[in-house]
Amino acid sequence: MEKEKMPSQLSEVTEEDTRKCYDDLFEHAMHLLNDHQKPVELVAGTMMAIAQRLYKTQLDEDEYEEMMNIVKDAPVKPYNVKKVRLN
Asked: What's the pTM value of the predicted model, to 2 decimals?
């Protein structure tokens, strides 16, 4: 039995849509980190788990593996913040 995919309208996504989605998720992550003092590993790990489950739901196995390799190999710049542990 083939799994049912979520609706995708990626071809209709604009740069503004992408920025708004990023900003909304970033704002919520900062809220959890700053207002609720959640550990960065908890927030980042949870966001990655959600992303992986969304990809696993939407992509076939080969596409999923390819996406995970892209994510693993992508160049990422750290945020310019002082690393302070409050706990």
From this structure: 0.78
